[in-house]
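Standup notes
- DV: blocked on the single-chain target, sequence here:
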Amino acid sequence: MEPNQNNQQSSPHPPNEPAPSAAPVYPTPEQPSQLGGPQSPLSQPEVPNRSSEQTNVIAIIGLIMAFVFPLVGLVLSIIGYNQSKKTGGSGKTIAIIGIVLNLLWLIGGLMVLLALMSIGR
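- DV (later): unblocked, structure below
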C-alpha cells in the first residue's frame, strides 16, 4: 500500500474539496458586503431625514378632541390634514381618522338631540 492512498482514505473530506478553514473570512473594501454594496472603513449608513417623518401634532390633538369637543376636534383635524399634505409628513391618516370620528360624533349627537326634542313635545 502506498502512503498517498492511505492519506486519501483517512481524510474526512473528498479529494476535490478544500478543507474548511478555522479563521473567518471578512470582505475587503473591494468585495461587496452582504448588504449589497462595497464598503469602506470610513463609510457610515445613511440616516433618514427625521424632520419629514414627524407626526403632525395638530392632527393628533384633533383626534383626541373628537371624544371631548367634536366641533373643535373637526376643525383641528382638518387643519392637521392640510398641514400634513403640504409638508409631506406623516399624520395624514391620523387626521382623516379624526375627521371621520368627529363627524360621526357630531352626527350622532345631533340625532340624539333631535330624538330628545321630539320626545319632549
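- Follow-up: Helices lie at 3-10, 57-65, 70-87, 92-119.
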